[in-house]
Specification:
By secondary structure, this protein is an alpha/beta fold. The protein has two domains: 239 residues, Rossmann fold; 61 residues, no CATH class. It is built from ten helices and ten strands. The strands form three sheets. Strands 2-1-5-9-10 form a five-stranded parallel β-sheet, with helices on both faces. A three-stranded antiparallel β-sheet has the order 7-6-8, with no helix packed on it. It has a two-stranded antiparallel ribbon with strand order 3-4. Strand 3 and strand 4 form a beta hairpin. Helix 2 packs parallel to helix 4 and helix 4 crosses helix 5. The chain is globular. 35% of the residues are buried.
C-alpha cells in the first residue's frame, strides 16, 4: 500500500531535555519557530538575543564574544535609517543614540553570557552559507542593514571557516552542555534554487563534521524532514519559502520524541489541556458554570510543580467575579 511519504527515521537521543533545564537557542528564523514552541510549553529558553542570524560563523562569533565578555569592535557600529546598529547583529538590535546602543549591546552580551554559562542545552540553527564581507572594515556581517550593496562583497563560507569558528568557541562553552545543530528548512531564493541547495549542503556537511568531532554535539534533521518527509508545497506558506504552521508543528513533534525526557512529555500532556482552558473564551464569562471552570483551572495550575505558573494563575484569578 502506498503511503506517499518517506518518513525520516530519527534515532531517539540518549541525552534528554528536562523541563527544568535551561536552554539557549540562536540562529535563523526557524530557531525562533521552535524556540517559541518551547517557550509556549513553559521551557526556560532564551532565543536569539542578538536577533535572527543566518550564517554559522556570525552565530559562533557572537557566542564567543558573550562568553569572553569581549565588547564588539567599535567599527562594527553603523548609523543608518536614523538609528545605530552593529554589523554583527540583526537590525532589531538598535537604538537612537550611540550611548544607548552601546549600553544595549553591553546588556545583551551580559545576558547572553549568563544564559550560556547556565544552559544545559544549546539549539543552533543555520540558515545560509552565503555571507557579506564589509569592505571597509573586513567584518563578516551578520546583517547588512540596507547599507548599499557596493560596500559589501558577497561570498560563500568554506567548511574550514565554519569548523575554525566553532573550534574557537568550543573551549569557552560549559563542559556539560549538550549542543543540537540543525539546518533551517527555510529556503533562501535570493541566489536561486541551485545556490540555495549548494548553501544548505555546506551547512549539512558542517553539522556532520562538528557532530563527528565532539561527543556532545548532535544533529537534528529539520531540513530533511521538510524536504524528504513532508515534501509537498502544501506544507509551505504562500511565499513557497517558509514552512507552514502545520509543518513546524510536525517538526516540533519529531523534536519532542527525539529529545524530551519522559517527565517533560508527561508535563506537556497536562500543559496542553491547561493552555486550552486558559485561552477559552466563553460567551458569558459571569455564569456560575464558567466561574466554576475558572476556579477548577486555578486549582489545577496550583498543582503544577515543574515550572512557575504564577502569571497564569494571576490571569485566571482576574477573571473571577467578586
Amino acid at each position: 500500500m502506498h503511503t506517499f511519504r518517506t518518513p525520516i527515521q530519527i534515532e531517539s537521543s540518549q541525552q534528554k531535555i528536562n523541563i527544568k533545564q535551561q536552554i539557549f537557542s540562536m540562529g535563523s528564523c526557524f530557531s525562533e519557530n521552535i524556540g517559541q514552541r518551547l517557550t509556549d510549553s513553559k521551557f526556560d529558553i532564551l532565543t536569539n538575543p542578538f536577533g535572527v542570524l543566518y550564517n554559522p560563523v556570525s552565530i559562533f562569533t557572537l557566542m564567543e564574544a558573550s562568553l569572553k565578555r569581549a565588547p564588539l569592535p567599535s567599527n562594527s557600529i553603523v548609523q543608518n535609517e536614523g538609528v545605530f546598529r552593529s554589523l554583527y547583529c540583526h537590525s532589531d538590535i538598535s537604538a537612537p543614540t550611540l550611548e544607548d546602543f552601546e549600553s544595549l549591546l553591553d546588556q545583551t552580551l551580559s545576558s547572553c553570557k549568563n544564559r550560556l554559562n547556565n544552559a544545559s542545552w544549546l539549539l543552533l540553527t543555520f540558515g545560509s552559507s552565503f555571507v557579506f564581507d564589509h569592505l571597509e572594515t573586513g567584518i563578516l556581517a551578520g546583517n547588512c542593514h540596507k547599507i548599499p550593496q557596493k560596500e559589501f562583497q558577497e561570498r560563500m563560507l568554506t567548511l574550514e571557516e565554519i569548523k575554525h569558528a566553532f573550534n574557537r568557541l568550543y573551549p569557552h562553552l560549559p563542559k556539560d552542555c549538550q549542543i543540537i545543530l540543525t539546518v533551517s528548512p527555510v529556503r533562501h531564493l535570493r541566489n536561486g534554487l541551485s545556490k540555495n541547495n549548494l548553501s544548505k549542503s555546506l551547512l549539512r556537511l558542517a553539522c556532520e563534521a562538528l557532530s563527528a568531532a565532539y561527543n556532545n554535539v548532535h544533529y537534528f534533521p529539520s531540513y530533511e524532514i521538510m524536504l524528504d518527509d513532508l515534501r509537498d508545497y502544501r506544507f509551505y506558506t504562500s511565499d513557497m519559502i517558509h514552512p507552514s504552521e502545520i509543518a513546524i508543528d510536525y517538526i516540533w513533534e519529531q523534536f519532542q520524541q527525539t529529545y524530551l525526557d519522559e517527565e517533560s512529555k508527561q508535563f506537556l500532556k497536562k500543559w496542553e489541556k491547561l493552555k486550552r482552558a486558559i485561552t477559552h473564551r466563553p460567551f458569558n464569562p459571569h455564569t456560575e458554570a464558567h466561574q466554576s471552570f475558572i476556579r477548577n483551572t486555578i486549582k489545577k495550575l496550583e498543582g503544577i510543580k515543574e515550572v512557575n505558573v504564577e502569571e497564569e494563575i494571576q490571569y485566571m484569578q482576574e477573571q473571577l467575579t467578586p
